[in-house]
Design goal:
The structure is a homotetramer.
Chain A (H helix, E strand, L loop, with lengths): L2 E8 L3 H16 L5 E9 L3 H11 L3 E3 L2 H6 L5 E4 L6 H10 L3 E4 L7 H12 L5 E3 L7 H11 L6 E10 L21 H4 L1 H12 L2 E9 L4 E3 L17 E3 L5 E8 L4 E7 L7 E9 L2 E6 L5 E6 L10 E5 L20 H18 L7 H20 L3 E2 L6
Parallel strand pairs in A: 1-2, 1-4, 2-3, 4-5, 5-6, 7-12
Antiparallel strand pairs in A: 7-13, 8-11, 8-17, 9-10, 11-12, 13-14, 14-15, 15-16
Chain lengths: ~400, ~400, ~400, ~400
């Protein structure tokens, strides 16, 4: 007997599309889990976008008011893919209405809002889930398993990064992403992924000190009706970028490992380089999203040092959830497949009542590290990460 | 105004699933093309498989008789993903019924059957299409464009291969793939992809001489009700493998390039290494499906020889059709995305009446090379590839 | 007319051998420079080592007293490859005697001693030179030229590291390298190379904050007559490691680039990973000593974004000084070839009177960064690097 | 007690320099073997070249007549690095005079001459040795050991190649290398290395069929006094290239492995890509001279298929003879180090009387494969390799 879960998606941009598409595929890709999504409603303030998404993905209806979605009794679970500034209000209402939530990151506009969201969820029965999609690469999950099984010994070093050039054009417009009123810049948008990955693999971070830089100090003002991706001429009127392009940090993990975290949105040479390199006393692991289907593994081989080296494992049926996409050979997955896994994990948690990971608690853990890094910008000294409140 | 095309899929194994899934996604992924698939019927001799596929993908009905699919007036296009031995009869009937055909490779059980299928299609109005999916990787299409634009000059060398270990376990059962009565082995299953890729990139092949080997001469007899992927014990009763595990060939292209083609199904060390390396007078290109989102490009730089080298291009929005999957950064596609492109190209050709590529004519071109290679096994001498009949 | 320079080498361990071997090859490898070395005397406190080196490399004589070398009028230039603690005294005497000096790094036992050595040299006429050999890889010199020529625009990011596992065995003995009385640990031994490389490529460092860790807190006490490379049993008597295994730092360059520096001597997975990744507004460069003959280069290609990517340049005759080793194709150099280049540059500076780089001034620049990092360990805050005194 | 061997070198071009330099380093690099070279005489028809080499490497005397070298009683061993056409006469005289011979490849101007050289040596007591230097890379020797130890099981596939662009400029002059009177082209110059490597790793070749092509059919005539590396204008007078630029071959090994061999001297994209990929029933190995310090190793891991993949081993102290260059970490060797190993092996064989490998017998084995390939060009059919005559 299969279980069908009614879905609403709020915010029909690129991520809203990705969530909608993913839900449609869960019943196929994760057939054995017995869960299907029913696409009930999609919402966007732009009526054309809402209706286009309805037609494209087969939602039963479209709306311009997210309250409609939250209020709909046929909807059990919602995806929040609206602009960050709107998240907390939707979360609040959704929890109130008892809807399960899959929220894109960052959960709140600010780390403080994320902590508030986690607090709201803590007292409720709703399943919360966060769009840290990169964790779901089968070889990343395998990396986590290897570490948990002691394959690389006690962790000593961790280097995490998310180097991306999406904003490297100095004539890309001054969208909300570049203004401090709308939240942090790279600390929020990119470093959050790197912090979550570090938590997944190496556990809690104890102490941090951070650096930041804004390499492109001004950008052309956006035109009415434009999109995030617009560019303007170098002589068009410009405004100040008021949050950071770059964040670097030294980190110390509770478990004793030492490391660095870095992220940038204006770098040249890296395209989507969310990556980690983690070393332990008996081995090491390395991965980058730019080769998301490959895990590099190093194992000490004291018995035969001539045969020691970095091994490249291709994502294949022996790695977690790969088989749901390709049961046969090592044929790689794509980015969107990670979003399908995410949707499947969310719906499975709803159906089974099992603990969902990554939940708002995991987002709160990221937020506390972000707060400590931001504090170190002001103090110019090491800062301790606040403890979890549970 | 969108155009909806009724679809039937015949043969609901792994490939039948892949085709069904792909059709569902065309209207979303290739939204601007204005074509949608309506999944009308799926067929499989095994009723349980047929019904499972119906439920999983949302076909309107399931059947155990492929003639039902061919006869259905609400079906405009069919996918043939049944066992190879059944292809020609279905093709014949489908052409007779005026159905457009997307056929998995090999089109016929033998090269001769493939030539017959092309002949049947030649006199009809149906759109034919073949599942040479690897060509659709955005960076492979880009490679073709670079060659066509003269970016690497006049072609001189081509090395193509498809090295795969799917049958490397000597205790994998003696399925139909390993018997000469059911057709060639690796020449049919794997080298066909390598030949098609060579045709795409380097044009027609003029002369060949081939080698072959069966490394695993016997395999356990399959048990009733088993699958292709079963294994047995080394002491179970065995039968002879009667077709080739390995094919190697020297090739000369009509355009003057010299090269090699190789394929194997029992190799260790290669997982899904469909690959090419092509050199011209001013540059070179290299690709392997094991890193399907990367094209390696070499350009002579006589003006600055210190700055010459192999460049790795990550599949991104600037490469053909990548944008349909990821409009933003260089986030890679997966294998199944190639099948979605294939389905979209097929449906677009039906909707627009444009010439479809790769059609049965392209499969016939592959078949003629296969025949020449097989002839050289007997003659132990160079053989000329037969000319196309149009 | 060729110029012959009399040479003395002090300290005949691995590095003393390397220097001696290199001097012998200068007249051959750098024939056109017209300089030859005459190996006059080698010194080591261990008479057997001194005599073995004499026989092996063809020194005219061997001695156990370095003062003999400094006093010898037929010696114009000396290499100091003795233990670090002995360097400053030898330097002082050598400068007094007017001998040119090629000193292995670190120049002084401590950064303060290095600054003192630079001060002594500043008032003299001697040519000083330092064994930062990694800079001499032809593709590293090419990287420097590319940056100087603006090929990657204005620098924005720099990640430097020297990750090495030479001390990763917890039962490797507690040699002088592991005791604070003999100087810093990894900050001195490994990070010095990474700092010098950063200076070469990205210019002066303005501000730093550092981290450190000792992962292996105790080691077996060495046995009399043993070597640095001895190991003992886990139950043998142990002593405390009193300097750092690991150093990490955030750095800000005077030119505005932001970055990280890291080094470790006990890491698993990296063997001799002295490496840099440097990004600018229009490109990026990356290199690691583990592939010392390859420079990775990224150039923005806004005109053809489909053809942008990382290019791998193989060290070849078009790169600086490669031709002295291989005039023909791109056949790689080895580590020891870098020491030959170093010796050639040193002797050429003596012969021509041109300014030598890297000199004690460059070592002093490294020492000032080391001092600032060490200060930040105590203050737990950002520290400014002291200005050069000239 | 050390043994000193008197050396003569005949032909002072690039290779004569390389041999001279290598002999000088044997006593240092392979100290423990107790053998030293004494550079007695060098010969070149060009007196200036002979004298320059004498001065550069410290030969006791220079001569323009190779007979002087062969006749010199203080010379025990000679290197033949003269033009190929002169080899056989020198070999004949040297064997007559009882001199041990290290001959650059090809040993004879033609395969037939090489077979004759082997025949001459067979009846004598002289040690013969051939300059197949690529075998000496420590990781290549390790590859051979792994195969011999069964690490990759029974060999099934071998792909060997030597792709090089040294002659890719169509305006490079028509030197002796391009004329059939002086011998084969790429079959002699480059494929010989690939055949020797195949023999080393995979044993004797039983059957072959080859292809060939001359991509650049004419070249400018050389000017008097010019060198091999001269280029001319496209409108200068040209002559025909009368031997092959490219050779391809299918090969069957006596042991059952199937494979391909390819070589080209005018390819774009490959610089010095002497390479092999060899697969067996339980693993695979791959190497290219372009990364000569890295061996790629694949081992089946049926017990943990998630942890199977290609491993990259960096040349290090655990690999054969690496320690003679770098006793410590994995710091790579350069091309010239391979020539030092070669010289050391040659001198050691002389000193110890042990069997030398690769000797003229190994060159003869290469020559027989070359003859079979050339025969197949004429017959257009498979040819059997002639058996060894011993």
């Amino acid at each position: 007997m299969r279980r069908t879960i009614g879905i609403g998606v709020i915010g029909m941009g690129w991520m809203g599309d990705a969530h909608s598409r993913s839900y449609r595929l869960v019943g196929d890709r994760f057939r054995a889990r017995g869960v299907d999504a029913r696409l009930v409603a999609c919402a966007d303030v732009d009526v054309a976008r809402a209706e286009a998404a309805r037609d494209r993905f087969g939602f039963e209806r479209a709306t311009t008011d997210w309250h409609d979605v939250v209020a709909d009794p046929s909807i059990e679970a919602i995806s929040i893919t609206a602009p960050n500034a709107a998240h907390l209000a939707i979360i609040d209402a959704a929890i109130e209405a008892g809807k399960h939530i899959l929220c894109e990151k960052p959960v709140g506009r600010t780390p403080a809002e994320t902590l508030r969201a986690a607090e709201l969820a803590r007292g409720s029965q709703v399943v919360t889930f966060v769009g840290y999609n990169y964790r779901w690469a089968p070889v990343v999950q395998h990396a986590r398993d290897l570490i948990a099984d002691g394959a690389i010994g006690e962790l000593t070093h961790y280097r995490g990064r998310f180097l991306n050039g999406y904003a490297k054009d100095p004539n890309g417009v001054l969208s909300w992403r570049f203004t401090a009123e709308q939240g942090y810049g790279t600390l929020s948008d990119l470093l959050s992924h790197a912090i979550d990955m570090a938590h997944l693999l190496a556990g809690p971070i104890a102490d941090v000190i951070g650096n930041r830089q804004t390499f492109i100090p001004s950008r052309p003002l956006p035109r009415a009706g434009g999109t995030h991706y617009d560019t303007a001429g170098p002589d068009d009127p410009r405004g100040d970028v008021t949050n950071e392009d770059y964040v670097g940090a030294l980190v110390q993990f509770e478990g004793g490992a030492q490391g660095t975290l870095e992220a940038c949105r204006v770098i040249t040479g890296s395209q989507c380089d969310l990556a980690f390199e983690v070393h332990g006393t008996t081995g090491a692991l390395a991965w980058t999203f730019e080769r998301m289907n490959e895990l590099r593994v190093y194992r000490r081989n004291d018995a035969a040092p001539a045969d020691e080296g970095w091994m490249t494992e291709l994502s294949g049926p022996a790695h977690p959830r790969h088989r749901n996409f390709n049961p046969g050979w090592a044929t790689g997955l794509g980015f969107d497949d990670l979003k399908v896994i995410e949707a499947a994990e969310f719906l499975t948690a709803i159906a089974t009542g099992a603990r969902a990971v990554p939940s708002f608690e995991d987002a709160a853990a990221v937020a506390r590290v972000q707060q400590a890094i931001a504090a170190s910008w002001a103090s110019r000294s090491w800062e301790r990460v606040a403890p979890a409140q549970r």
